[in-house]
Amino acid sequence: MTDLIDDPDGSTPGWGVEEADSDKSPAEVAGAIEALLLMAVEPMGETELAQVIGVPETVVADALAELAAFYDETGRGFDLRQVGGGWRYYTREEHAELISRHVLEGQQSRLSQAVLETLAVIAYSQPISRARVSAVRGVNVDGVIRTLLARGLIEGIPRQPTGAADQHQARQYLAILSKKRRGYGR
């Protein structure tokens, strides 16, 4: 491997990047590839992996193929797939029910402070739009609303282009107020 070459203004392609170490075998870089892919948020391409590890793309491609075959042959609970121009770990389909059950059971546990506050705003002001909840709380509540919906703690209602839901509630309120004024609703 050669040393890094400085490119003062960063304008020369290839400068500042280590030359690939062609002496490494796919087996020698497999651990590094696994570590990078486990921490990656998005799929990583062979070029990116090769640059980070400092080996030619062919070594990375061979290592990825060997890893994918190894996981398949040994029946691991996950597999390595090429998707979206990159590689990523996925759980196997035969474990989908187990994983779903675990995730849903985990959601039945405690509610965070943000979820409780959002739930309180919704309970006090229902029906209320997501934007209005965000305005009341002063933060974006999209993720919290999704959590509440997933847990079945709130229900979404379809948006009425005419504002019919709000008008209906307003009519109910006015009817109650009118009865009270006439002495019927005490």
Please, could you describe this protein's structure?
It is elongated, with a radius of gyration of 28 Å. The chain has 186 residues and is mostly helical. The chain has a two-stranded antiparallel sheet. The longest helix is centred in the C-terminal third of the chain and has 19 residues, at 164-182. It folds into two domains: 1-102, Winged helix-like DNA-binding domain superfamily/Winged helix DNA-binding domain (Arc Repressor Mutant, subunit A, Orthogonal Bundle); 110-166, Arc Repressor Mutant, subunit A, CATH 1.10.10. It contains eight helices and two strands; from the N terminus they run αααββααααα. 11% of the residues are buried.
Q: How are helices and strands ordered from N to C?
A: HHHEEHHHHH
Quote the beta fraction: 5-15%
In helices, the fraction of residues equals 40-55%
State the end-to-end distance: 88 Å
CATH top-level class of the largest domain: Mainly Alpha
* CATH superfamily membership of the largest domain: Winged helix-like DNA-binding domain superfamily/Winged helix DNA-binding domain
From the alpha-carbon coordinates, what is the Rg to the nearest angstrom?
A: 28 Å
Q: How is the biggest beta sheet arranged?
A: 2 strands, antiparallel
Q: What structural category do the secondary elements indicate? A: mainly alpha
Quote the average pLDDT.
78
Question: How are the SSEs ordered, and which strands pair?
Answer:
Layout (H helix, E strand, L loop, with lengths): L25 H14 L6 H8 L3 H18 L3 E6 L2 E6 L4 H12 L5 H13 L4 H8 L4 H9 L13 H19 L4
Antiparallel strand pairs: 1-2
Helix pairs in contact: 1-3, 2-3, 5-7
